[in-house]
Design goal:
2 helices, mainly beta, 112 residues, single chain, elongated, 10% helix
Length: 112
């Protein structure tokens, strides 16, 4: 089950916040609600100067039930599953105008 709390779209930004709850009837540590994962997605598309565009989007997760039930998990599990950060796109796109530069090399001759 995923519940989208808010979805903000205002150019050039987009933010999406969601809450995910996972439930199981299995034995501990995955009995009842065993995951309450909050995520936030952020995207930016921005024009830089005249010829360049910047785009980035990322998503961060945090599951506070791992802190609440931290005694039931080993440190490696807590580090791996409690929070995550993903960068999906990060780039600058653009074109440079070619400047023509002419060089003239001349030779001077002197007569005596």
């Amino acid at each position: 089950m995923e519940l989208n709390v808010t979805d903000v779209k205002s150019k050039p930004y987009r933010i999406k916040l969601s809450q995910q709850l996972l439930y199981s009837k299995a034995k501990s540590p995955h009995d009842g609600i065993y995951s309450a994962r909050t995520s936030i997605f952020f995207e930016i598309k921005e024009r830089i100067l005249d010829n360049f565009k910047f785009k980035a989007n990322a998503k961060a997760y945090y599951d506070y039930l791992y802190d609440k039930n931290s005694k039931e998990f080993i440190k490696e599990e807590l580090r791996e599953f409690r929070d995550e950060f993903w960068i999906y796109d990060l780039y600058i796109e653009g074109a440079l105008e070619v400047v023509t530069l002419g060089l003239l090399r001349a030779r001077e001759g002197q007569g005596w």
